[in-house]
Specification:
Blueprint: E1 7-9, H1 10-15, H2 20-27, E2 32-35, E3 44-49, H3 50-57, H4 60-67, H5 72-94, H6 104-118, H7 129-143, H8 160-178, H9 183-200
Antiparallel strand pairs: 1-3, 2-3
Helix pairs in contact: 2-5, 4-5, 5-8, 6-7, 8-9
Length: 201
Amino acid sequence: MTDRTTYTTLTGLRGRGWTDAMVRSLLGEPDVQGRSPRMWALAPVRLYLVARVKAVERTEEFALCARAPGGSRSAAAVAWARARRQAVLAAVGAEPIAVPRLSGPDLERRAVRHRRLLGAREPGDEVTAEKLVRWQVNYLRHALVRYEALLDDLFGDIGRAEAERLLDRRLYAAIAAAYPALASECGRRIAAYEEVAGRAG
């Protein structure tokens, strides 16, 4: 059962002064989504964490959207989301990336151990040079996961995919610069992401 003091519905948000456009731009996807346990309720349940709602309500961006008269609220929310997107993209583009510097043997050991800890298995038990390169890149990318916090200011979906792609490009480029032997694999991954993004766009 969901605690009503922990979550609020879209109707509850509207009662707090939110418009649908503000919800999309400032909150994004619901924290809980699914079918209602009540058999007669056909609409899906969409619940938002009250703590997250209150955190956004304390921001200047929410105040700007809430002060906008009538129909211009949605325009204010969109304008804020665009400004936030640009700010996050600028932060992702400017953040210095510090890749751990390890000796070749140490990196190989850590990469193999990381692979085993993940419990990943591939056909054949032999560790080939090609697999080892992939595992090293995986290990270093995992070591840089803290940089994903740069995306936390994107409350909704607007611009998030673009910011994630930019961050991934920068992280793989930093790995390639620090470990030239891994540059080809990093380039392959960047190209694969760009291809997927191109098909999606």
